[in-house]
Fold:
Amino acid sequence: MLKYLKSTVCAVAGLALGATAALANPYEEFAGETLVVNFPAHPHFDAVMKVLPEFTKETGIRVEVDQLQYLKMRERQTLELTKNRGDYDLIAYVVFSKADYVYADQLENLARFFMNPKLADPNYEAEDLIDGYVANIGVAGGKKGYLPGPTGSLFGLPFGSETSILGYRKDIFDKHDLKVPETYDELLELVCLIPELEPGMGGLASRAASGHHASHAFLLHLAPLGGRIFDDEWKPIVNNEAGVEAAEALKKIVNCGAEGSKTFGFAEAGASFLQGNSAMFLDSTVFAGQVNNPDKSKVVGLVEWAPHPVGERAGSQTGGFGIGIPKNAQNKDAAFLLMQWLTSKKADKLIAMAGGNPSRYSTHADADVNEKFPHMATFGEALKNADPDWRPIIPVWGKINADLGTTLSKIIVEDAPVQESLNGVAERTQAIMDDAGYYTWTQ
Amino acid sequence: MSVAIKANRLTPYMFLAPAGIILIFALLYPIGYMIYASFLDWSPSQRIGQAEFIGFRNYVNLWGDEAFRESFWVTIRFAAIVVTLEMVLGVGLALLLDRNIKGMAMLRTVFILPMMIAPIVVGLMWRYMYHPTVGIFNRTLKNFGFEGIPWLSDSTWSFIAIVIADVWQWTPFIFILALAAMQSLPRSALEAAEIDGANEWQKIVMIKLPLMMPVLIVTLLLRLIDAFKVLEVILVLTNGGPGLSTEILALRIFRTAQEFQELGEAAAMSNLLLMMLMVLTIGMFAYSRVQEARLARQRAAVEKDAD
Structure:
């Protein structure tokens, strides 16, 4: 009898141990699987590549990365997502792809994964993810169709968050006893004062090249100055007082910029700042990684960072990437585990330490991260003002964006009248929106 | 009719069949696909079967699209200017260098170098040369005490900048073809003209150019077709800006498909471009035929007079 009892106890203990072991390793079921992921060639994802071996070591899941140039990535995904069986288990996408992919029913709703107790990590701490980015990159189906709201769902997670930040030359500001601009009035005064104080140097290096770049630069100023592209009924209001003010601000910044600034794209504006030809830089945080790299920069150790100046409101850019699971993926559960791991507190810190852009507030405040990258705390503060409605995330935005960008280029280069030009954009935008059916319920 | 005779008659068609099949798949199928796509509201996120059929709406939209009309005129202006300049310079250079100079082979190789360079590299190279501060042009101008030119930041100068880059790259193409045509001219006609006392200018205008005309027309046509489709150099140099001042149709098509995600409208634009090029091609060949017929008539008249 005792013998029987002993063996029973042993068997139960063995089973319990086995169960504990299984619980302790939620990845076990997927060990040996290979995931194929599609990432862009981008500094953040270069950092991710350094961290991925850690995931394989921890989980036994192998990851094959197809890293493509950003525009090529979009092209490839467009083809991949329309196939019956896709090759990608996880994809990175830019924010305006969210509208297309969700609308075409090509991304998995993440609710069913977060509801699955075998997959969802109870210590994930989703509230630590930067709100503006979850709203901007992850959620669709709520307010305006692309923002959160009672009807919204989660289709992706922010991964490589970027916002706009003001970089300035501390040496120049100290030399002339200048105050770091906190408001738009201060900023616009400084941009033209600096070329007077430092002949040959531009005030602020900004993008202005025709098309996407000019439009991006305009949007950087539009939200803080109180403007929007549309009102709540999709009526274009880009030509209202705030819109005109934003266009005039951009024109002033470019006119007081370094030589050739009318044709600057992101790279040229960055180069102007890195070469010491401009005293300020207001654009994406992704740029910060180059400032103290002596191979690329002549301003090593001379740059400090401040939040995007405030106008009518605080509203900085929301950009960067998100990650999602394609509907036609082959290994969705394992892909979710990778997605969860990559955006977990632990991996977010590892990626930040490798030079990536963290997606969590806690990583921005982390002592080790700040010791290595002292600007990270400022970036974390700036991200609190990241405006998810910074630009409309609708399928027809590409066309509106191009029209806005070429019109702004005419304002900057050919001195086209600001109000009249923006009226033209509003008129054409209204026609595009009408054509796309946005006024079906209001007409 | 016997089987053998039937088979005999079919033989040429059988030999032609592989070429015909390749033609159908490689040429007609893609063109048919493009024509069909131009009647669809098709985004890249959809399969072609899922796209909505909208008839001629893409064409109607293009008709009312100011940006498209502007691109259309930029393309016409660009093609007319570059091809005229390239023809004049290319044929002029060929006329100048059609002689036995030492090192001529070397010189010819150097001349055709620009057209061997990848267009993206050409775009980047010129972009750096046009740079407002470090570019060679503005630095040279400033060294001589002149103001720098806003090469890429002014609408007129940007257009001039892309014209210069294109002329630099493609004049050698005209030069090499014109030179080949010139060197294959019958020497007897030129010698006869010399005996009759024609000077160099008369020989060029009355003998060389008319005899070279068939080759020059084909050359002109090839360049014209290419000038309508040029993309990479302008994409890198100006990306169509400032405003739309350098946005030629090929670039507009690229942006419509890539940025605006409207494949149907891009296909409609491509069809219009194709139709325009076909009209040009047919026009050129018709002109060439008329010219040839006129020459044949003249020749016949001369021969009749001689009899």
Observations:
- Residues 8 and 217 of chain B are 39 Å apart (CA to CA).
- Chain B has one domain: 66-306.
- Chain B has twelve helices and two strands.
- Chain B touches chain A through 31 residues (CB under 8 Å).
